[in-house]
Amino acid sequence: MPPSPALPEPSPPAPSTRSGRRVRVPKIWDDFVPSSRSGLPSQYTANVVRSAPPHHVDVPPSRDPSPPLAPAEAAWKTEPDGFGVYREYARRPHRDPEAHITLESVCDATGLEKPAAQDTPKYTSIAWIDRTRPSGTLSPSSSFACDGSQEKPAPTDADYGPFANATQFRLVDHFYGRSDTNSLDALDDIISVVQSPGFTTADLAGFSAKKAEHALDVWASPSGVFSAEDGWQRSSVHIPLPRTHAKYPSEAEAPKFTVPGVVHRRLLPIIKLAVQDPDSHLKHIYHWLAHRRYWIPPSAQRSPETEPTSSTSGSTPDSQLPDAPSPIRIYTDCYNSNAMLEAEAEIRQRPRVSGDAPDMEYVTLPMLLWSDATQLSNFGSAALWPIYLYFGNLSKYFRGRPTEFMAHHLAYIPGLPDAIKDFYMGMYGKAPSADELKFCKHELFQQIWLLLLDADFMHAYEHGIVLTCGDGIVRRVFPRIFTYSADYPEKVLIAALRPLAQCLCPRCLTTKDQVADTGTKTDDRRRTHIRQDTMALQANIKRARKNIFKGFSIAGQRVKSWLDPESLTPIQSAFSVRLSAHGVNFYDMLAPDLMHEFELGVWKGVFTHLMRMLAEKGGEAVEEFNSRMRRMPTFGRDRIRRFWHDVSSRKRLAAHDYEAFLITIMPAYEGLLDLPDDQTVADLLFELANWHALAKLRLHTEVTLDIFRVATKQMYKAIRTFAQQTCPRYQTKELPSEATARVRRAKTMNAHTQPSSARKPIAFNVHHTYKFHSLGDYPDYIERSGPADNYNTQVGELEHRHVKRFYARTNRVAYEMQIARKERKRSLLASIRAKDSFWPLSALKQDKKRSRIASAEAHSRSQLSSSGTPLGGVPEPSPPSEHYDIEKSQRDGFHIWSWLEDHEADAATKDFMDLLHDHLVRRFVGSDAEPEDGFSEQHTSGIQILNDRLYRHSTIRINYTTYDMRREQDTINPRTHADITLLASHTDDDHDAPFWYARVLSIFHAHRVNFVWVRWFERDLAYSSGFQHRRLPRLQFMDANDPDNIPFGFVDPDDIIQLTYLIPAFEHGGTTDLLGPSKLARRIKDDGDDDDDWRYFYVCMWANRDIYMRHLGGGIGHRGVGVSVEDSRRHAVRLSRRGRARKSQPGARVANIAQSLGQYYCDSDSDWDSDSDSDSDSDSDSDVVSYASASGSERGERPEVDADEDVVSNDSEGEGEAGDETQNEIDAEHESEREDIDDIDDEVADTIEGDGHEIGVSEELDDCFVDTVYAAEGFAPL
User: Fold this and answer.
1) Three-state DSSP class for 949?
2) Which long-range contacts (CB under 8 A, 24 or more apart) does 863-872 make?
3) Rounded CA gap, 33 and 196, in Å?
4) pLDDT tens across 435-472, in order?
5) Global pTM value
6) Which of 5, 101, 590, 1188 is most solvent-facing, going by the fewest CB within 10 Å?
């Protein structure tokens, strides 16, 4: 029997005041600044293989005339940086793309200083597109004077491309850089152009706008970067026309319809343009070689004050080194994904091309594709269907910014011309049928892609192309198509599949009737049957097409018999035609679509049904929900906005709105249903929000992916439980908006009918849709191609803004080519502008505005003081190396004793000076020097505040390092965003909580010692919360009436971690029991009067990615502080919520693992299987993983659930893409081959054993099966 673990040492007594009450002193927070990626904590230095820095190696050319194979090289590793992150290459790169990463280059917040202007690109946006400069601050030569005028930079000898001089270029650039609306700003802009150095009217002799337009259209740069061949062109494609009963010897003999004027660019010139540009500011940061990125996690959770120093200060002797933790794989971008590693390995195995230097790098160019049709105007039928191309060698932090213009517009897909009907009538004497028109539409899409994947591109695909890259190094580049991002209707078009047919998934062969089993072991086996572009499949499509042109009907059995087994269409995919010979399975490139599949798919469908349930319960429930959402506090810079309108009405909502609903809905929906259903819905909402947070992470590790896989099963299980147990209790009907939309659609389809406007019954059917099925692919696809933000369709949606603004400058007739030409002009003008020293006045103004906007909430502009210190002005960007920034103003000062006298009756001012003196002494002498009974009056008597004056500030900006090693900033404002997170010191009873929370009441300084006055929160220890209990942590203000409490205090701004998002527990209402009337303690403007507080608050763990990783744990940028990697694995566990304990009969495989940790694992469903049909689809309320002590008693009985439910077809606007997700009525008697849905504990065990992580193993044994969630409210356990 293993020895009992040693009891933990008792915590040191908490500091106290002279009155003996406890004082909250948070643990010192040491913010790690990623100022250099070269530093290495000393404890890691002896555990990592060292390698020399990369450099260009000159190797004499080989004399062997035969093409040699690529030489085998040893893996090359970089030095770990200060986070313990290093890269492992298969061979040494010629250049390190991360060698020049600086602190400023990883700053994302607008309030942080950016790199100097000479180190960043010229502003690359155009004013009428965005009017912003995406990065870089003003150089000293182009700054503002006090009056906002521009200091004149010296003219330079820049290359102005097709323009003869700076005068002509700046006028044309101003024209394209301004919006169509006239304004005073536009007038100021043209004045600044005319007054700029180098501008002279003599240079305008013979110049005209038409000449300038023509020059931009035909100009080719001497460097070849902008050449005629990479420009836009028109081409024609030909579509064969089938006709039932019309026989032809072959498809080639059938009549063809010509679609003229396809606007497109050739792929190979675009590649040359992107790769060879020597003027690109990104030329040195291309990741040409794939690599694996690893993280050496902290060996144990350490306090921040004991963080190791950088390796530059010396190494720890080997005898003192802790056990080296195993490196953890990181997935951040396309260039460290498995897909690129596999592509690079395939290229390395190729024989080298004869004549290539032995040291020439053979590199992969990952191509990321997006396409999606968009409406160009609010009225009319003007639309555009663009194809966008991005290159995955660039970091997504550049690639994903619309203002960086990283998207290459490849083609604008035309619709099928109406003239085809006339041509068809002329050929066959009859109009084409719907099936024949659909055939032509699908064929047109594939013919356009065959046009784009031309012979030149395919030659480069197979043999590579030798290019001198922008960094001056010659490489042989092999382009590869990695991902294609599109919504579901376009996915099936790309894959040539029938939408929502029997095999509805474009990645696997799961059938429609099997979708409800998603998340089970049976479903996992089915997903292994992926779609393969085999020779047999291609032959079946060819046979079907042959029968079509023999005169058989497209919808007839002679055609469908070859296609229906896999729900194919008689269309040969262009990607299959071009890439199958190279061993490419083109189905793999169809990327998951988080925005459409979850935010506008599964979650939108769940949210809509929750609103139907409230409507069925009664109008008061709906109004209460709307009222709570309207009172929802805001968070961050537009992260959570004010919900002004009734949320239940769902009017004109975007994906961002539904995401905000998901983040905030748990407290708003609490208590609106009866208790059993309320608990089920709370579990569902928690699992959906948890899954969504994991799916949106910008950085994944092996640990988070393991957690994600378990979370996916838990999310699926929660939805099934909701569908089978809760939904049948409610006779839900259409919402009024859904009924109106149904009537409108019916009238559109048949104007002579008058459909009923009565609300029809409608059942929950999300768990029978493709979008529900697709969520199971995300963990594996992230492992293959990187995190979801690399290929989310949101990237393409943002790029639509540009073409819509281009359209505004066309004549609205034949606008495709006009938009194409303006896109090229934009790129050309941006490249010339980067060489010009002149900055338009609007760009300068907007740049300063953007840099200040994050801190502008409570500030007003005013004149400078005599000392030159801004008074009330918006502060300048703060240095990212500083943890916080407070403006240097002394405008709002006050005399302390007079202020205390004025607020003597305010309960918040009790012990104000004693607390302040204790805090200041602690700041000066250190908390370690504090006596156990607190500082005495003798200690604090030496504290003298100059002139007894404090100075108040309206905001403080907190800079912090995110989990993905970026630098971010939060603005704390006592009137709007006042809740903060601090590191817990574990000096109270709540030892498990890693963080403390407080509300900022005021921000002060006294003779430049900055401090923050706060009101403390404390955790509600009677409420079980966290990942295991599927509940948000619940807080309450400290009780000011408790003589042992000190509800107020002071905090060093250096100890603030970041802003936090606290949501009122609306269901529990307000209270006056915690504090008397106080205007000072209740400054939040939306909290109502000064007499009461919300009784409870919930900590919103998914307010943003970084807050989520703070609670989940394992964030690399957090460096193990707060929640460790080991703790994060336990957050994959869900504890049961049963009222009685169950047998402790651990499953054989899991028991071995659990007992090794001194625990027992309980197979949650093994005993129930004997009492129920093992083939049923019943889904109990048991959790994914359950635990019991060795002395557990008999468990409760399994509830009976009817798994086979009738699902009513849903034609509402809220679910699916224009009805694409609508399902026909499902046969209630259908028996699918299923396993017990609850029996997934073995899968968790597989995860544990396969990956060596303790996911699914908990150390909590006490009261595991008692429902403590509602016990505090007086409810009986369920």
Assistant:
1) strand
2) 864/146
3) 40
4) 999 999 999 999 999 999 999 999 999 999 999 999 99
5) 0.81
6) 5
